[in-house]
Fold these 3 entries.
Entry 1:
Amino acid sequence: MRKVLFTIIVSILFFLACSKRDHINPIDPVIYQSPTLMPASTIVFTFTSVPTLTPTPTSTPVPTMDPNTGAVWTQGTASAAFGVRGGHSGVVMNDKMWIIGGANWTGASYYNDVWYSSDGSNWIEVTASAGWAVRDYFGCAVHDAKIWVIGGVNASERFSDVWYSSDGANWTEATAAAPFGVRSGAQVVAFNSKLWLIGGYDGVLAYSDVWYSDDGMTWTEATSAAAFTNRLWHKCVVYDGKMWVIGGLDDVVGLVNDVWYSTDGVNWTEATAAAAWSARFVFGFTEHYGKMWLTGGHDGAVMLGDIWYSTDGANWTQATAAAYGERCELVALSYDYKLWTAAGVDSVGSETNDVWHSP
């Protein structure tokens, strides 16, 4: 009985409490109680880290090659500040074209000066006299962010020295006597993080040997006799993951127009024994926009001014005859999306100092 009575009393009290709550003014300051806040020291905030977004790098699109390349030529300057010359070398480094050494045979002068230009018209002399002796027909390439000068000849001496510079002004001798011996008319390229010297002439014999070096001081002979014949005044270029050797003066049959390539300097494959262009030497040769380009040269009888290109070394297409006329002893360069030629000897046998580009 007491348990039943207790249940009834609790039910009545609960009913009254509910009835009173239903009539509470929700904004009554006495009735309405603010919730109890935890002390600040006890509040724990959890933050989810926001991932750092790395913007996708954008690159400047490479313009497509102008269809007039090789056919239309524009003169950058008729008289560059470096003066008339032939037998010089040219390279591209640090977003500049460089002209190095050579000779003015008419004036019986040899050079060891170094010049650069970023537009082909305005040329700046870095040094009038580099650390190495005056010379022409030397090997030259860019390797390990340096310009390298190897071998060469002047009126009294042939060289086997190797020099390098990172700025064109200050030169360091890597070796005074490389093991391949004195050499002129050789070709030097940078390939697979090494310098390569191919062929050339020691004053008595021409060669078909191939040497390489990581540092310009220590040289290793890859082969003493490559599959192509001994030669000098040929040209070499790196293209399509291969080293290419074309043309030049063979010490047995004379001038040649064969084309060879290799991926290791030891094994050489003949792309063609007789390219569409005539046999020649002292011509310009460079890689440009996925093609190999040949400019001018001399066939032993006359100066040449034709322009040819190939994507495989076997099949060659003639672009045109150059606007600057017949020319040998010139350099050809690929720079600023243009094909360039600089200086050389013209059809009347005079050294020049004009600079042209195509398109």
Note: Residues 1-48 have pLDDT under 50 and may be disordered.
Entry 2:
Amino acid sequence: MPQAPAMTSRTSRSPGRVPRRSRRPPVVRRRQRGIALTYGVTLVELGFETLYPLATGIAVDGLLDGRPPAVLLLVGVWLAHTVVGVVRQRHDTRLFTRLYAEAVTEFVAAQGGRGVPTATLAGRAALARELVDFLEFDVPGLLTTVVGALASLALLSVYEARAAGLAVLLLAVAGVLNWRYARSAGRIDAELNDAAENEVDVIAGRRPRALGAHLTRVADLRVRLSDAEARTWGSTELVAVAVTVAVLVLLTRDGSPSPGDVFAALAYLWALLAAVDTLPSTVERTVQARDVLRRLDLAGVDGPDPPADPAP
């Protein structure tokens, strides 16, 4: 990419100042527009998903009142969502398969030139697939979880403000539990990635006892990770049960809400609960991706930092 002249560039560096390297891998920086498009369309899809309970509630009340055209909003939202989803999936497949090929090629060329052992390179090439999967599936999932939970909370408050208050309490508890889980998962994932990098050497050694010890250690680490996730999810579910029962009481005790309103409020509550349920797995994948990115050191494949601008 051509650079602006040094005299007018806002990013010009003073003599002796060392520029800070971007934390994003070069291959990601080159394809950032395509990635941003994917994430933007993901948010559009989330908007359609958020409209489903509202449109369904309107359709239910309309049909009960003898107004069949009330179902047209639901049909329109559904068809538009389908079209956008098909286009996004076609774009994603092409984008991320090419990104994976470029990422592995660049980091192997860079780290192979630094003398990194072939066995380590093979292990890290496998880890690169996990990083690309994170960008393709887990980042959109994280966006859907966070934005979807906030949207569901906002719309739930329209139907029952006290129910929204209980939902905020649930989110706070889930946040604390998943923060603790992230710390534990980070340590375990680092050990798992260490094992993945060494696995080729262990297999090449052809020593059954060493291989058995290696695989047993990997199994133990995965059990620890699964147990930590199960504890986090189970503790969150206990709070979710109490919140759900309380919301049901609030929705049915005061006044006489229409069936469509009750359905929509409960649907938004369930959408929020579904988002909370995905938090542990999303947290684990995020800390895993951070460790993988550190190991791949893709930020180094674009060569050394450029020299400082000469003094005038």
Note: The chain has seven helices and no strands.
Entry 3:
Amino acid sequence: MPPVSGVLEQVQIDHTVVDLIVVDEHHRLPIGRPYVTVAIDVFSRCIVGLVITLEAPSALSVGLCLAHMVTDKRAWLEHLDIEAGWPMAGKPGELYLDNAAEFKSEALRRGCEQHGITLRYRPPGRPHYGGIIERVIGTLMEMVHELPGTTFSNPAQRGSYDSEAKAALTVAELEKWLALAVASYHGKIHGTIAQTPQARWAAGTAQTPAVTVANETAFLVDFLPVIRRTLTRTGFVIDHVRYFSDALKPWIARRGQLDRFVIRRDPRDISRIWVLDPEGGSYLTVPYRTQSHPAVSVWEHRAAVERLRAEGRAQVDEEALFRMVEQMRTIADTAKSTTRKARRDAERRSKAGAAGPRDKPAVAVPPEDIPAGDAGRASATDAGSVAPFEVIEQW
């Protein structure tokens, strides 16, 4: 593998299950182990992106990690209410990844093509090629082993320690702790580069400034899962749910001449979709046709469909689907004090984007690239209506 000679020339991304049992926000009872997705800049050994989820790794978690990587982190740190420096941000030249399915998704491929990011993969059966990212994840997990509720690395190391009984941190508290841990890591001498990661980053960006993205929301849309649908006279139908906006009318009038549309959907909140203009590079935000329906996640939607099928419904209609979602939420709210799965599901729902306000139909403008030094002067409105980077859900 050729040597890396500059900041953000190559970034490695990988995931792991965190060696820690977390608790829910409401009852402070165990809900299991979360996942973390980490991105490291190979040249400086700085951690440039980090996402915590309650769902297994997916194409979306990769996109969320990238969105965290390319945007200035000061607003996120302020949201966490911590004083820590994490100036490492910028768009990578190349992503070096393993061969897992989430790293070979159409969503990632199309997003990287749009933003000029090269994808490269480890040779199959050669795990040492991913040693850099795996070592930094190992370092973070060693630090996690000091927290109450740790599972350690294996049963032998855990011994008689009761991880569930000792669990004390919520996902939000773990995220806050990890942000501080990363800041500490950046300030310690790294054995391979013989200096601190933050010093090497500063030297590297003094020669070649990092390019960040002003609009995290627009950037993330480019990495959301891809769906293709034909436009009908009443809009789009995706998984039994109808979407419509008056802004679709010009396309509806000539839908016979148009191919299937490329659509992006955020699995955390399916109350809106982003439709790619077939003649341009922008996305149109299209909400539910029936906007009184609640915002739901993909996993809630699929669970409701499965429940309707189990009840013998040959056809699933939209109204029955959302009635089932409401019934299942009521059951979950009643059960969450007693069952771990219900508590975890409730926590996922509360932390997902579904809790946020919906956008009015609008065109999503491609994100503007800005030099890292100018990031602090970007308008606060660039963040869009999506909640600040917090605890993340994905599918």
Note: Confidence is low (pLDDT under 50) at residues 354-361, 375-395.
